[in-house]
């Protein structure tokens, strides 16, 4: 499906107005960032860049698109003619997918003709907000499993096909091991997993017959769903009978899945029964509306679980279903010069950061694998061995610091220049590995699920001074 019309009506209204009142080649720069992490966390894992680049690189309006816009009787003919010839003339710099990103930091910055970058707002936000949200939720869940695999099972509960497909990819970036979504598996080269539902069991005269039928067809993939009738008195005993038959035929069972009931107690009883029967390697998978807090509780209780299948609470991030990323102008070209722009608010934390910026992650000079802070700077600033900085968190008491003894790594990379894309990582598991490496470098306190410590993010003095100057000028 083409997505050029996937935007809000006011974007087209503004673009039409720009065409009537401003030079058609007037350049603008917009930043994508967020102010508050979901689930009261401290960061978001960036995701969605691959799709953004693909959409922007191939951005154009079809004859049918133009005909529909004309039918609205809202736009001038010369603006619509402009759109017929419109193709991507934008450039993007972005933080790589899989990077933990903190509030106020530009995840992506796009520059190009004002008309074009305005029309791309909704589509870019839609992609980045959704995929970053799901990647972050997946990290929250996988971070508490102690390395046990988490399978993404959410397609049937996702808010539409695209949410299911790209949500599965984002879930892998965040740490999941596989997906039940076959189309996502095909598109992004992911492991596709899944065995049976309760309907399989109910389609046979009894549970044992259903298990035997499955084992006959899939002797090396015998993961049996044991909670259709009674886990302890029926499901597990019947599974063990089939496991013995499989072993006698030279096959080893995969294990069982429990999808309802008191999972901790049922898994404990099932483990004991399978161990006593000689199937100590048979795995127990838990599913059924799980999330990070439930999984942690199960494991803290000692539940002998080996894998998890997570559906709705992952693919919808149901506990915190919105990442409110925004798209704000940071600079506008005027007579060949870039002029920084700002959005003022009565709330200090909603005042935007003007100008063309770069984000640096600072690492301890004596321990280069340990990140200590981020600094948002103007792009043309030279980062030396010492930085006079202002805390970006407006709520802190002591906001001025001198940063020393660090190694600075720039995070924003040029990924698209006038329609030509730079090489970026597209292998989903390579991005997952990158994310895990980046996460390992953050302080443990910043990764707590409950009451995480705030990772320090600073503004350079020059950027802070520019922001204050524009605020003062707006108030005159």
From TrEMBL:
Residues 356-466 form the Nicotinate phosphoribosyltransferase C-terminal domain. GO terms for molecular function: glycosyltransferase activity; nicotinate phosphoribosyltransferase activity. Residues 150-340 form the Nicotinate/nicotinamide phosphoribosyltransferase domain. Residues 5-129 form the Nicotinate phosphoribosyltransferase N-terminal domain. Keywords: Glycosyltransferase, Ligase, Phosphoprotein, Pyridine nucleotide biosynthesis, Transferase. Its EC number is 6.3.4.21. Pfam families: NAPRTase (PF04095), NAPRTase_C (PF17956), NAPRTase_N (PF17767). It comes from the Bacteria. The keyword Ligase applies. It catalyses: 5-phospho-alpha-D-ribose 1-diphosphate + nicotinate + ATP + H2O = nicotinate beta-D-ribonucleotide + ADP + phosphate + diphosphate. Transiently phosphorylated on a His residue during the reaction cycle. Phosphorylation strongly increases the affinity for substrates and increases the rate of nicotinate D-ribonucleotide production. Dephosphorylation regenerates the low-affinity form of the enzyme, leading to product release. Pathway: Cofactor biosynthesis; NAD(+) biosynthesis; nicotinate D-ribonucleotide from nicotinate: step 1/1. This is Nicotinate phosphoribosyltransferase. The lineage of its organism: Bacteria, Bacillati, Bacillota, Bacilli, Lactobacillales.
């Amino acid at each position: 499906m083409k997505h050029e019309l996937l935007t809000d009506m006011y974007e087209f209204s503004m673009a039409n107005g720009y065409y009537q009142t401003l030079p058609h080649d007037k350049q603008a720069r917009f930043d994508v960032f967020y102010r508050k992490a979901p689930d009261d966390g401290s960061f978001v894992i960036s995701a969605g860049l691959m799709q953004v680049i693909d959409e922007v690189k191939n951005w154009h309006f079809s004859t049918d698109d133009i005909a529909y816009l004309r039918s609205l009787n809202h736009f001038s003919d010369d603006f619509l003619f402009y759109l017929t010839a419109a193709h991507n003339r934008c450039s993007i710099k972005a933080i790589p997918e899989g990077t933990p990103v903190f509030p106020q930091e530009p995840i992506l910055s796009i520059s190009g003709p004002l008309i074009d970058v305005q029309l791309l707002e909704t589509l870019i936000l839609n992609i980045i907000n959704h995929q970053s949200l799901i990647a972050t939720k997946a990290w929250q869940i996988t971070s508490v499993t102690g390395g046990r695999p988490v399978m993404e099972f959410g397609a049937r509960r996702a808010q539409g096909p695209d949410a299911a497909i790209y949500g599965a990819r984002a879930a892998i970036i965040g740490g999941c091991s596989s997906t039940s979504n076959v189309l996502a598996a095909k598109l992004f080269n992911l492991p596709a997993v899944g065995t049976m539902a309760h309907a399989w069991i109910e389609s046979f005269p009894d549970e044992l017959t259903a298990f035997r039928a499955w084992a006959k067809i899939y002797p090396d993939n015998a993961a049996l769903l044991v909670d259709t009738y009674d886990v302890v008195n029926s499901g597990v005993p019947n599974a063990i009978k089939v496991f013995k038959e499989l072993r006698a035929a030279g096959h080893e069972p995969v294990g069982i899945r429990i999808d309802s009931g008191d999972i901790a107690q049922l898994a404990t009883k099932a483990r004991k029964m399978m161990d006593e029967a000689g199937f100590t390697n048979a795995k127990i998978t838990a599913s059924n509306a799980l999330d990070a807090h439930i999984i942690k509780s199960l494991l803290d209780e000692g539940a002998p679980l080996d894998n998890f299948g997570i559906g709705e609470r992952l693919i919808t991030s149901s506990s915190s279903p919105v990442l409110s990323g925004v798209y704000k102008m940071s600079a506008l070209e005027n007579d060949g010069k870039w002029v920084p722009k700002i959005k003022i608010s009565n709330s200090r934390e909603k005042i935007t950061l003007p100008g063309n910026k770069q984000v640096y992650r600072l690492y301890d000079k004596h321990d280069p694998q340990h990140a200590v802070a981020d600094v948002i700077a103007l792009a043309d600033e030279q980062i030396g061995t010492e930085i006079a900085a202002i805390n970006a968190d407006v709520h802190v008491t002591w906001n001025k610091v001198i940063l020393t003894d660090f190694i600075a790594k720039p995070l924003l990379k040029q990924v698209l220049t006038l329609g030509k894309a730079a090489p970026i990582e597209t292998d989903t598991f390579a991005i997952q590995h990158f994310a895990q490496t980046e996460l390992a470098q953050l302080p443990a306190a910043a990764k707590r699920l409950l009451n995480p410590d705030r990772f320090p993010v600073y503004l350079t003095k020059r950027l802070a001074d520019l922001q204050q100057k524009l605020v003062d000028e707006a108030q005159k």
